[in-house]
Amino acid sequence: MLFNSFRFLLFFPTTLILFHLLPKKVKGVWLLICSYFFYMSWNPRYVVLILFSTLVTYAGALVLQAVRDRGESARKLQKLTLIACVVLNLGVLFLFKYFRFACASVSAALSLIGIPATMPAWDPILPVGISFYTFQTMSYVIDVYRGKVPAERNLLQYALFVSFFPQLVAGPIERCENLMSQLKELPRPSYASVRHGFLVMLWGYFMKMVIADRAAILVDTVYGAPEQYPGAFIVAATVLFAFQIYCDFAGYSTIALGAAEMLGIRLTQNFETPYLSTSVREFWRRWHVTLNTWFVDYVYIPLGGSRKGKLVKYRNILVVFLLSGLWHGARWSYVLWGGINGVFQIMEDLLADRAKKCEKTVPDSFAFRCVKTVGTFVLIDFTWLFFRSNGIRHSLTLLGSIFTTFNPWILFDGSLYTCGLGMKELHVLAYSLLILLVAGLFAHRGVRIGERIERQPVYFRWLVYIGAVLCILIFGIWGSVYNASNFIYFQF
């Protein structure tokens, strides 16, 4: 059930109205039923997987809690319980997401040395959101093992934590200490929170339907036929893909935040104007915040972090980014994408002292910050080419076309109007990106436009609401050119 589908436009108001009307004792049960219905609308059979992950980590956490205070003799049982929970969860993730990829990689490696190999018949459809809820359940059981949070004894309460529908299939990846306590209380949402949540959802729909889905048409056209659209076409499509994936993923997260707020729940902000970053390191502090903090807390720091010298630190950075690339998809181009981002971070760290010396000779001005921001965007956008390509060979073809074909005039002579979007459509996209930039600059400076709107008179607020809805309905991508497959990050 896509957020931008007619079914969701029926599902969510029904869920919200009954949530407000039902007594507090059954609100949690109602949200749990709605969350499972939401997940089963994709593929009812895969509800078994989320149930399995829920039950394994629920039982494992109870065992960890029960033996925590029994001295050193129970330490081994704790470790074995934690290992079993992690292995079982990662095993299911591997089976459904990486098994065929691993077999294909082994088969390709064997064929290079002349050993024939046949692929197994197992090729399941990837369950929606499996990477997200798997990481969420693993963070919970690890935190219980560390003594950071107590084990939840109420199975229904814990099941709701795992399956809470706004953030179930594409994050944010919530921690127990933030979400569980709110789900236990489930305070009655105020009119202000419902109003603000609705405004937040409208912004998310604008990002997704007006910007991301429109940019996707041009990006898919160019990347699908690089021989027909060489050189500057690919550069333009790659720049647009940077905004497509941001507006697609941040748009989903924004809709999720707004929907949860209308239910009285505050989710973690997953994006903080990442394209206004002045370094790659800062970008990754602002992009997909909950996934990056997950890798820091459960991979980077346990490996030693930056405590054991620079070589170990750089190794840990590479490990985290390679795993992050693999988390995004079962393809070597994703791993390469992650590795390049890791290398960029290491290079930044190696050049940090020189950069500081250079900055002392250059006054800290708006122009200088713009140069650093644009430079960071170029580096990040370069890596997006590998992310968007259909594989390493495809990405090398795209890069080769960029560096061997010189045709910058196509950016100005109207040739871009042949890439799936006409002149009016491209103009709408350009104006929408300008709105996105202005909103991002305000947010970067700590100015919350939504809060400013809510302080205005009633008639002004309703003009904004109605205008936003009309903008989405008029300029959103609908009809035959709309690909209702999924949000990009649903595949991860």
Q: How would you sum up this structure, described in words?
A:
This protein is mainly alpha-helical and 492 residues long. It contains 19 helices and no strands.
SSE topology sketch:
Elements: H1 6-21, H2 24-40, H3 47-67, H4 75-112, H5 130-146, H6 155-163, H7 176-185, H8 191-224, H9 232-262, H10 280-286, H11 289-300, H12 310-328, H13 332-350, H14 352-361, H15 366-388, H16 392-404, H17 423-444, H18 449-454, H19 458-475
Helix pairs in contact: 1-2, 2-6, 3-4, 3-5, 3-6, 4-5, 6-7, 8-9, 8-17, 8-19, 9-15, 11-12, 12-13, 13-15
Summarize the structure.
The protein has 492 residues and is mainly alpha-helical.
Defining key terms:
single chain, about 500 residues, mainly alpha, 19 helices
Helix tally equals 19
Strand content: under 5%
N→C terminal distance: 16 Å
What's the rounded overall pLDDT mean? 87
What order do the helices and strands follow? Answer: HHHHHHHHHHHHHHHHHHH
> What overall form do the CA principal axes indicate?
globular
Secondary-structure-derived class? mainly alpha
Q: Percentage of helical residues?
A: 55-70%
Radius of gyration: 24 Å
**Spans with pLDDT under 50 lasting ≥5 residues?**
none
Instruction: Summarize the main sheet.
Output: none
Counting copies of identical and different chains, the oligomeric state is: single chain
Total DSSP E strands: 0
